[in-house]
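Structure first, sequence second, as always.
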């Protein structure tokens, strides 16, 4: 052996200290590996679908019971055309408060749509009287109303029918 501790005959030097597998760096790396495996293999929480809108039940409305459905106080927006009540809430910007058709919200809009008028005088004044029989409308106005009804049928849900107060079903 030479003075500096190396062997002359080419053999490997003798280790003065045995390497330990439990060194601090190995323990940290092993812990990190276990943590990665855990996060990769842990069960994920069950995915939930978003809640859909509440189911719509077909109702029989009278003019007074339709009136509150005008978009105020977080109510949906309904309007009636020729006895069909449509949920026009998706078009609340048009039919709700502040919209150009807001007079029709919660009302029978048949005559106003047929005449192309958004004035309040096109609406039935007496909510407790008979429904508008649409008398006095010409062929062009009836066609315009039919076009509006077709548009609403294609775009919105029918949620009920409008009947006069005298034909309202008994409340349970």
């Amino acid at each position: 052996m030479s003075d500096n501790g190396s062997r002359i005959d080419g053999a490997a030097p003798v280790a003065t200290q045995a390497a330990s597998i439990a060194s601090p760096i190995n323990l940290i790396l092993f812990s990190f590996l276990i943590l990665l495996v855990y996060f990769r293999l842990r069960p994920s929480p069950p995915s939930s679908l978003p809640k859909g809108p509440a189911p719509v039940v077909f109702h029989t409305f009278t003019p007074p019971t339709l009136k509150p459905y005008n978009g105020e106080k977080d109510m949906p927006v309904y309007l009636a055309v020729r006895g069909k009540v449509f949920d026009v809430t998706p078009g609340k910007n048009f039919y709700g408060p502040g919209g150009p058709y807001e007079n029709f919200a919660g009302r029978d809009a048949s005559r106003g749509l047929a005449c192309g008028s958004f004035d309040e005088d096109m609406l039935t004044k007496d909510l407790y009287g008979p429904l508008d029989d649409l008398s006095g409308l010409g062929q062009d106005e009836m066609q315009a109303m039919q076009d509006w009804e077709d548009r609403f049928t294609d775009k919105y849900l029918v949620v009920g029918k409008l009947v006069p107060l005298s034909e309202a079903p008994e409340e349970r």
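Margin note: The first strand starts at residue 59 and ends at 61.
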